[in-house]
């Protein structure tokens, strides 16, 4: 009986020590891009479970700042709510760091610096294992190591595919960055266009009112039977 219990304990220890870390180390990379509205006077926070030693990449940009400046405060905290990154009044930024412990990490976009202006923020969150690509490549080699020539050709193919994957990921990030810049420029141009139109309308109405007032005053000066003529005569 004691031997059976001991065997079960050893099996569970094997699962905890070997299988679970392998599962986390081979977890699929997490890549998510979101566009959010940061309301004035509020802080928008998001939580993401991350395992220890995983690589965290956060890239954000304010694409629209309302009628004020396009900047925002940003914070990144670990599961113990220790602040890892803290920035104030930034329009864009990018950070890479390694998770020091497993748990729920918290990232916040703080728009309490604005009283009336709502900000539009786009950010990219990427979480990958530190040795994900290398470990996946090793496992594939072990599965298909039946012939030396095949393994050699397979290694070359895997290397090329890995390079293509990296280039595609970089191209996608560049495209996302370009779209964010275009959205920001478009919002700024539309805001300036609306401001110019409103100011032009105000000036047009003021010119009409001033012109009508001048005509009315001139007519009242030469119209001897009117009440305003008597008013001008007092001066």
TrEMBL record:
It is a single-pass membrane protein; Single-pass type I membrane protein. Keywords: Developmental protein, Membrane, Signal, Transmembrane, Transmembrane helix. Its main location: membrane. Pfam families: EMP24_GP25L. It is found in: Endomembrane system; Membrane. Residues 43-127 form the GOLD domain. PANTHER family: TRANSMEMBRANE EMP24 DOMAIN-CONTAINING PROTEIN. Belongs to the EMP24/GP25L family. This is GOLD domain-containing protein.
């Amino acid at each position: 009986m004691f031997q059976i219990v001991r065997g079960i304990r050893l099996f569970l220890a094997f699962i905890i020590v070997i299988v679970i870390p392998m599962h986390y180390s081979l977890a699929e990379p997490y890549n998510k891009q979101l566009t959010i509205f940061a309301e004035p006077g509020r802080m928008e926070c998001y939580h993401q479970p991350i395992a220890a030693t995983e690589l965290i990449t956060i890239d954000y940009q304010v694409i629209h700042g309302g009628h004020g400046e396009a900047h925002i405060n940003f914070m990144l905290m670990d599961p113990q709510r220790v602040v890892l990154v803290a920035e104030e009044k930034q329009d864009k930024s990018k950070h890479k760091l390694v998770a020091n412990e497993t748990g729920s990490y918290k990232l916040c976009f703080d728009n309490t610096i604005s009283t009336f202006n709502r900000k539009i923020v786009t950010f990219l969150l990427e979480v990958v294992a530190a040795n994900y690509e290398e470990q996946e490549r090793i496992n594939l080699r072990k599965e298909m190591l039946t012939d030396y020539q095949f393994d050699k050709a397979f290694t070359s193919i895997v290397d090329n595919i890995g390079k293509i994957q990296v280039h595609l990921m970089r191209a996608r990030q560049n495209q996302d960055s370009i779209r964010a810049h275009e959205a920001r420029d478009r919002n700024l141009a539309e805001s300036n266009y609306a401001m110019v139109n409103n100011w032009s309308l105000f000036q047009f109405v003021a010119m009409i009112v001033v012109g009508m007032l001048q005509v009315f005053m001139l007519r009242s000066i030469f119209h001897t039977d009117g009440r305003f003529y008597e008013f001008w005569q007092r001066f």
